[in-house]
């Protein structure tokens, strides 16, 4: 994961909303789209950005994919940010 990708990923308010929803537990695209004024394809595109940045993970569940927050991705981001509080 490149940290600039993570920062670019969380810069978008829709993606931050998706992360807030996923923080409450794993969800499918359909479940996530229900809380946003954007289409399912748009939600899928936002999730792809979050996946590429390493901030979410996806696992197959039948014909669907279930998305969840990636603790490893956020750990790397937190480690990088923590260096500024230790100065």
UniProtKB/TrEMBL annotation:
<protein>
    <submittedName>
        <fullName>Winged helix-turn-helix transcriptional regulator</fullName>
    </submittedName>
</protein>
<dbReference type="Pfam" id="PF01022">
    <property type="entry name" value="HTH_5"/>
</dbReference>
<dbReference type="GO" id="GO:0003700">
    <property type="term" value="F:DNA-binding transcription factor activity"/>
</dbReference>
<dbReference type="InterPro" id="IPR036390">
    <property type="entry name" value="WH_DNA-bd_sf"/>
</dbReference>
<keyword id="KW-0805">Transcription regulation</keyword>
<dbReference type="InterPro" id="IPR001845">
    <property type="entry name" value="HTH_ArsR_DNA-bd_dom"/>
</dbReference>
<dbReference type="InterPro" id="IPR036388">
    <property type="entry name" value="WH-like_DNA-bd_sf"/>
</dbReference>
<dbReference type="GO" id="GO:0003677">
    <property type="term" value="F:DNA binding"/>
</dbReference>
<keyword id="KW-0804">Transcription</keyword>
<feature type="domain" description="HTH arsR-type">
    <location>
        <begin position="1"/>
        <end position="87"/>
    </location>
</feature>
<dbReference type="InterPro" id="IPR051081">
    <property type="entry name" value="HTH_MetalResp_TranReg"/>
</dbReference>
<dbReference type="InterPro" id="IPR011991">
    <property type="entry name" value="ArsR-like_HTH"/>
</dbReference>
<keyword id="KW-0238">DNA-binding</keyword>
């Amino acid at each position: 994961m490149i940290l600039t990708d993570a920062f670019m990923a969380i810069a978008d308010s829709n993606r931050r909303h998706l992360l807030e929803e996923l923080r409450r537990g794993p969800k499918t695209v359909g479940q996530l789209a229900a809380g946003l004024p954007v289409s399912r394809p748009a939600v899928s595109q936002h999730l792809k950005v979050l996946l590429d940045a390493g901030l979410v993970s996806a696992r197959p569940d039948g014909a669907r994919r279930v998305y969840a927050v990636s603790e490893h991705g956020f750990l790397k981001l937190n480690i990088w940010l923590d260096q500024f509080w230790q100065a």
